[in-house]
Amino acid sequence: MSATRVPYPTARPIYEAAARWRDAALLDDRSLFSDGPGSTLADGEALIRDFVESPDTGSGTFMAKLRSQLASSPTSAVQLAAEILYVHLLIASPEAVTGQKKRAIVREILETRDGTAPLPDDLGLTLDSGLVRAGTAYGTYRWKLFAFLVEAFVALKRLPLDVRRRVLESPDELVALLDTLDDSEGGQIQKFALEHLLLPDVFPPNTSRSARQAIVSIWGTDDDGAPEALQVARISRRLAEDAGAPDSFVDLWRAPYLWQWSAPTDAFERAGAWFRWFSDRVELDTEERKYKLEAAAEIQDVRSALLGGEEWLVGLKRLVRRTNLVNYRAAEDLVTWAEAAPDDAARTLRALWTLDRDGALDGFAASLPPDVLDQRGSRLSVSSFLRMAVDAEAEPVWRSRYVADFIKVTGYYRPAAHAPDSEVFDAFLGLLDLVTEIAARHGVELRDRLDAQGLLWATLTMEPTESWSDEERNAVAEWRKTGKGTPPAGAQHVAPALEPASAELSADVSLDELAASLYLEAGFVETIRDLVLDRRQVIFTGNPGTGKTYVARRLAAWIAGDPDRVHLVQLHPSYSYEDFVEGYRPSADGGFTLRGGPLRTVAERAAADPDHTYVLLVDELNRGNVARVFGELYFLLEYREDSVRLMYSGEEFSLPKNLLLIGTMNSADRSIALLDSALRRRFSFVDFDPVTGPVAQVLPGYLAARHPRLQWVADAIVRANSLVDDPLAAIGPSHFLREDLDDRLVERIWAYDVLPTLREHLYGRPDVLARLSLDALRPVAAYLGTDQADDDGAA
């Protein structure tokens, strides 16, 4: 073990695969997948020729383009491309890319050519794991990460074998070689990943440049001008030595390190505020701590009896059957087995109580019969409960329900589904350490992990008491379900549901989290993201109230990674080229000054900052004369690599590749049908259909999460849209996405926002309008809408 090698069982196959690739492909000319001939310099140079030096800037996904680019490549080069993609995918945790998706990516390339060696089963299963939580840039710039790996492969293979071997063993020489390659547009991610995969005992598993810079700024002391990568490596080793465990892994994303070099996320800050609120309403010593320590003492008695050869089964049965720390079904499962096979149970419990923690938990799981505690939730709740006999204050009991709930509201790391119990429990202990730290930042001092577990349990599961106001009850329920909102302070209300927190605008937020915050299906959001990144120009169409602009702004900020790199402009009938691109404007001295418009301004910013993505949002695109507004820039929308001479300044101008355009159009405006074919050809169009598409699920999802008593409103709108039977007049969800929504507000919105628009669309159809009053719709909706209680189920 070392300060930088991830010690978990799920990480070991990753390091073994990386070592196999190093030995077979980098030091030898063998295929990673077949161990036969392959991975030659000639194969790598073919990929340089066919992919790196022949970029495909047209439409299509990365995989579709790669297949096309490899169409004329030798079969051995196609094999190498698949194996390099495999290495690229090794680092990402399944939260970013599932193992199934990783395997599909590799096989998609292999299946384009007969004669390629298939992905071996053992290497394929390795892809179910990962080492880092890759951000959006990992997927956004996959073409660049792949290109960097190809160039690194060729750079290494061009070295004589003895030099190549030395470089792969020398941190300084490896960094020097990789620093000669182009790592722009996300390439740094792959460079940092490759450093760790090739020398895991030197370089930490860190693929973020900003994180490296922050770590160096806090702990760096080097004066020799060493590269940043080497400084971070030295810091990890030094922190391990300072902790008195030089051979132990230093996880800079856990306490006590994480919040020394980074600030807690908004989600954790909100959790800290709730810890403060609940700490004033629960007595940890008497309500949480005392009975757990008493239970630990009873477990110690059972343990002493078993290890001493005395009667232990009666005490075990009494203990697990009366505690609330273990699910009762799991307790009965354990007792039934112990009664039927007491000798086997004794051996299993003896190991649980005498081995080190990891060996004890995994040994317990391995020793059980297949039909006993076969679900991790039940098994680990039992084993962690019984392990409290060893050290309850450092290793408190784990339960799946509240841990999963807290991970959901904070975005904390979730171990891989196939991770062993020891790894899941270690992640839980790391979570408790962060709970202790964030609670302290909010004025709550916890003595140990047992206190942290008690406060966490109370905060996530404590039932409302009579002393809680309705506002407090609603705020607690809101945070537990969505992670939004902070404790009420006097008359202060919780944060509005649709106001994005700054953390949600960062690239660290996963696509699933973004989709959940928008109440949209992840697949729909993923499709939009892929279209935006592939075509670079996308238009959202839909009726007023379907959330086009809101989604566009949130998605743009997420893709850009910073809302400051997003610029919004709204077109109107008098908007012109001079307003949008550049033109002369009156100056204070009575003359005219040439000024750039928003497109030129944001394009220049993007060109000066190629390592980041910029987004220009053009709202109400079809309200302007689009051809007049864009002028000669229509050409650049299709040919990003070219330039044109601007009308007024006469300067050469181009649209940088890192500038994306998202437009919105109102489908109810008939002028959308008049868009010329040149515009349609240059944009992809995404329809925000409030009747049949994913947008139809936004309001039901929002009401279920925020206003479950008003779920009938969503049913009323479904009924109304069915009666209207006109996609251009369909009612969108945005009218009702209000934090302060209640029955009176619903009636006001319907009377003054919804019905006036419907009257305009349904002129001459009084029979339909008569059936669209809220009173007419409410009985149907009230019948359709029912409250459903949550079933906690087994732990």
UniProtKB/TrEMBL annotation:
InterPro entries to which the protein is assigned, alphabetical: AAA+_ATPase, ATPase_dyneun-rel_AAA, Methyl-DNA_Rec/Restrict_Enz, P-loop_NTPase
MF (Gene Ontology): ATP binding; ATP hydrolysis activity
Domain AAA+ ATPase: 534-689
Domain of life: Bacteria
PANTHER family in alphabetical order: 5-METHYLCYTOSINE-SPECIFIC RESTRICTION ENZYME B, TYPE IV METHYL-DIRECTED RESTRICTION ENZYME ECOKMCRB SUBUNIT
Protein name: AAA family ATPase
Natural source organism: Oerskovia douganii
